[in-house]
Amino acid sequence: MPLPLAPVALTCGEPAGIGPEIAVLARKSLGADLPFFWIGDPRHLPANTRFCLIEQPSQAHSVAADTLPVLPHPFASPATAGTAKPEHAADVIAVIARAVALVQAGAAAAICTAPINKKALKDGAGFAFPGHTEYLAALGAVDRVVMMLACPELRVVPVTIHIPLAEVPRALTAGTLEHALRITHAGLRQDFGIAAPRIAVAGLNPHAGEGGAMGHEEITLIGPVLDRLRAEGMQIIGPLPADTLFHASARARYDVAMCMYHDQALIPIKTIDFAGGVNLTLGLPFIRTSPDHGTAFDIAGKGRADPTSLIAALRMAQDMAQTRAGAAPVGHFNQDESGAGNGGD
Fold first, then answer.
1. Is 190 found in the same domain as 73?
2. Which of 15, 75, 114, 190 could link 44 by a cystine bridge, Cβ 3.0 to 4.6 Å?
């Protein structure tokens, strides 16, 4: 099986959450088939974890399949499952920055980030970013990025993300939509090897406005942007009614669905594959994936954590790294040219 040029870097995330547990479970499931290493404090791993300290990422390739390679990053204190500690915040942030530095240096092929608790980082270290994505964009020195959610059956991109629904019409501008479409189109080509991406665009209003009877954004804002990009050669359909965009035969017609707001994108993908969805960031100068869930403080340390989404995120990072390197990806999230079962980042 082809391998990335370097192993994937997995950040520890919030030590009091399920991140350390699912890292160990992912290693047990994947073994040596997918080389990755965990950056964090070994004291935060579950008791009796088999791990091996490494000094540099390349050593992860030679670690036994039943052992987690750990690039140590000492924290101020041990972790308490379910309870974030203010003194951990600065190191959680530092681990993310360290992973970015490693991938920028070529020592890691991609970054997979375990969940963080944004309030804990803000309270403990004055974290000035809304979340992972914005911090990674700053580290990568880019102004605009796109959040994609994916599973093997579907890829979706919300054009507006974590804002109240009442603010969506104001935030949805021609510039915002065009940038999201261009970044998504480029990402599908670069990271998924799709030479001519097929993009479906949902309308904002019910029935995509129904010719203006239920809203005018499709006519005055969305439509003109799509027409302009179609004139450049992009394969775009829409704006389409969102309620008929996600059944199986509709999904076979596109490689990604662009949605106008958060729930329009996330409800279908979480319905199709609640446990296995992956969050990834397009537009960065490096590859970043993440499990599509939070820190789960309520079940941390109780042996109930499900590593499915993390395993999918690691596999996607590997596929994307191999595609960028010009190698044939393993194919966990790349569909054939027919479009059958299209989706999944």
1. no
2. 15
> CA 166, CA 257: separation in Å to the nearest integer?
22
Torsion angle of the four alpha carbons 300, 302, 303, 305, in this order, in degrees rounded to the nearest 10: -30
Strand partners, 52: 69
- Residue 241 and residue 119 share a domain: no
The residue range of the domain holding 209 is 154-272
CATH of the domain at 17: 3.40.718.10
Question: For residue 46, what is the DSSP state?
Answer: P
Q: Terminal CA-to-CA distance of the chain, rounded, Å?
A: 20
Cα–Cα distance, 271 to 343 (Å, whole number): 14
For helices 19-30 and 308-324, the axis angle rounded to 10 degrees is 60
Q: What is the pLDDT of residue 325?
A: 86
Domains: count for the chain: 2
Give the model confidence (pLDDT) of 208-238 as tens digits: 989 999 999 999 999 999 999 999 999 999 9
Q: Does the structure show a pLDDT above 80 at 65?
A: yes
